[in-house]
Specification:
With about 230 residues, the protein is α/β, with parallel strands linked by helices. It has 10 helices and 9 strands. The strands form 2 sheets. The protein has a 7-stranded parallel sheet with strand order 1-2-3-4-7-8-9. The two termini are about 20 Å apart. The model has no long low-confidence stretch (mean pLDDT about 95). It binds 6-(methoxycarbonyl)uridine 5'-(dihydrogen phosphate).
């Protein structure tokens, strides 16, 4: 579950988010926060409260930082999120490995945390970058996301993000990743992606936000999503 709630008042935001966590905890396998939540709530302030609450339900918490800077900066960013209790971070392979994401993988390994890589995003403009044709190191023409999927394997990523709005891309990425690196797929529901198509195409997990937390009954919405997948099985 993606928790990207917005409220004018920070205490209201914290209270509402805690309520959603408690009500849906039995239906989700992980919770994801991103900057949207960390900016108003503060990492070592209210965000730690949220991380601790999620952990009470024995669910891991992923920080969707989309880390994408030079290594020195990335190292500090990743260390801060791991210190705050996050179990995994999300990083952008456009930064490259050497002097880019290498320290993130190194710290994650040392602390036994995870790194998930963005392989193809869910919005329509994502194809401008992740879908562009590039030459790989051998000079072969490939889609950028195919190269990123190969990097996920080479760098030992713990997961790959591929938008549910690009099911054919999920299938292609899955063929490169094999069974060892799971695909996490955002874009289900409000963004137009189909949960059943994403899973059938090869995603292991769906990342769902507004369809759950903006509904009148988040617990029921999460359960309904689960039930729809079970019915498919
Ligand atoms: O279900 P939604 O549309 O309300 O929320 C989707 C969540 O997934 C939201 O937290 C986005 O930041 C995130 N996301 C995408 O929507 N598209 C992407 O390509 C990638 C992500 C993401 O989780 O990246 C790690």
């Amino acid at each position: 579950m993606a928790l990207d709630l917005t409220r004018e008042n920070r205490d209201d935001l914290l209270k509402r988010t805690l309520k959603v966590i408690t009500s849906v905890s039995h239906s989700v396998c992980a919770v994801k926060f991103n900057h949207q939540m960390v900016l108003p709530l503060g990492l070592y302030d209210r965000v730690i409260t949220l991380v601790d609450e999620v952990h009470k339900h024995e669910i891991p918490v992923i920080m969707d930082a989309k880390i994408n800077d030079i290594g020195h900066t990335n190292e500090f960013i990743a260390s801060q999120y791991f210190s705050a209790g996050f179990d995994a971070v999300i990083a952008n392979p456009f930064a490259g490995f050497k002097d880019g994401l290498e320290p993130v993988f190194r710290i994650a390994k040392a602390k036994q945390r995870g790194v998930l890589l963005l392989v193809h995003m869910s919005h329509s403009g994502a194809s401008e970058g992740y879908g562009q044709t590039v030459l790989d190191e051998k000079g072969e023409r490939k889609a950028q996301f195919e190269v990123f999927a190969q990097r996920a394997v080479q760098w030992g990523a713990d997961g790959a993000i591929v938008g549910a709005t690009f099911p054919e891309t999920i299938t292609r990425v899955r063929s490169i990743l094999g069974d060892n690196i799971p695909i996490f797929s955002p874009g289900v529901g409000v963004q137009g992606g189909s949960l059943s198509r994403a899973l059938a195409a090869g995603a292991k997990y769906a990342i769902v936000g507004r369809s759950i937390y903006e509904s009148d009954d988040p617990a029921k919405s999460a359960e309904n999503l689960l039930r729809s997948v079970a019915a498919q099985d």
